[in-house]
């Protein structure tokens, strides 16, 4: 499913609406470490971990919590806003 992701205008991959919790979690890992062609982006990583947790990934809940401790409250709020937006358009 990750191979079938859309690409945003900034060139960043967006998960498809059918992405599983595990796929969202793996993509979150890429953003949280800046690997696999993804930029280091904690807001996107938190958003993806949040979505993955909603789709049943227990690991994503742990990573989301750890990541949120490294982020400013406005960054966490932005990640949550982006997750809501993704759900609304997915």
Task: Characterize the structure shown.
- The chain has about 90 residues and is mostly helical.
- It contains four helices and two strands.
- It has a two-stranded antiparallel sheet.
- Helix 1 runs antiparallel to helix 2 (about 40-55), helix 2 (about 40-55) runs antiparallel to helix 3 and helix 2 packs across helix 4.
- It is globular and about 30 Å long.
- The two termini are about 15 Å apart.
- About 30% of the residues are buried.
Overview features:
4 helices; mainly alpha; 90 residues; 2 strands; 60% helix
CA-atom Rg in angstroms: 12 Å
Strand content: under 5%
Number of separate helices: 4
**Given the C-alpha coordinates, what overall shape results?**
globular
How are the SSEs placed, and which strands pair?
Blueprint: E1 6-7, E2 13-14, H1 21-33, H2 42-54, H3 58-68, H4 73-89
Antiparallel strand pairs: 1-2
Helix pairs in contact: 1-2, 2-3, 2-4
What is the compact description of this entry?
The chain is mainly alpha-helical and 90 residues long. It is 60% helix and 4% strand.
């Amino acid at each position: 499913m990750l191979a079938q992701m859309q690409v945003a205008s900034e060139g960043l991959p967006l998960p498809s609406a059918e992405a599983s919790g595990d796929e969202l979690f793996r993509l979150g890992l890429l953003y949280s470490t800046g690997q696999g062609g993804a930029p280091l982006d904690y807001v996107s990583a938190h958003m993806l971990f949040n979505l993955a947790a909603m789709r049943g990934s227990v690991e994503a809940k742990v990573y989301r919590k750890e990541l949120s401790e490294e982020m400013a409250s406005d960054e966490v709020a932005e990640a949550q806003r982006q997750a809501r937006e993704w759900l609304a358009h997915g």
